[in-house]
């Protein structure tokens, strides 16, 4: 039969996921209650950081352990450790930060793919640039930071989910690219209704709590526009390159300029513009139709004092049912070759 004392004994086996010390050492077991008639256990736990994937992992482990010992249901509330308690363990937090992807010692180059508005093909550009860089022998990661409009797993034909190894999430690898997305953590394409602060913590988890390994480049598919999530990314990444995606339409380029201006104000370097849907070319006559107009990419590049890295015509990838990836262009595809050219320009700019 479960008692409050036996529950505390069970909780002693669990560590704070950030301090790597037991919940007893951190005074993290705040409250234990039990309703014997219903075998319902209620606990309150304090850890160094809340609203993270580590918290979710710890919660799952505690619930499983308590149910194995006889609890019919478990309720867990989390809070953050008070500053006085954190001060006792500050060295552990520093060690964690020094090893992270965002640490000053990190050699990973961050590349954010941004746009002023939705529907211009920003995610398509993100997944294909990431794939092209990997084909060129680079170690590449991709964060689907468009948390409300995540689409990267579907576009890359990813059906697996990340696994947890120890206290780290292992990203899913496809086409040589390591991928993490909010889409992995929701069921049945459910809408995300979290508010900004929680979403910011989730993004932080994507940087610090995923086992990325050694990366040359980490690409971020940003949400369109200049909202809270894009601002969080700009704040979290003091050193980041940006690529702005637009269509040739002058209005689209005008809107995209705001995303570029935001990058410049936050001291991020805009290394180029990609003009998507530049034209449609008839397979029969070879004639080019400028469906969305002309000049938007050049106008945007001039305004942001950068260059057009590539122009992508309207054309679907060739789908292969055995290796389905609805948005990835093959290396020898006409657009695949353009993405390779774009990737080579990116490497040249960043490595030099």
TrEMBL record:
Keywords: ATP-binding, Hydrolase, Iron, Iron-sulfur, Metal-binding, Nucleotide-binding. The keyword Iron-sulfur applies. ATP binds at residues 116-123. HAMAP family: Mrp_NBP35. This is Iron-sulfur cluster carrier protein. It holds the Pfam family ParA. Belongs to the Mrp/NBP35 ATP-binding proteins family. Homodimer. It comes from Peribacillus huizhouensis. Binds and transfers iron-sulfur (Fe-S) clusters to target apoproteins. Can hydrolyze ATP. InterPro entries: FSCA_dom_sf, Mrp-like_CS, Mrp/NBP35_ATP-bd, NUBPL-like, P-loop_NTPase, YlxH/NBP35. GO terms for molecular function: ATP binding. The keyword Iron-sulfur applies.
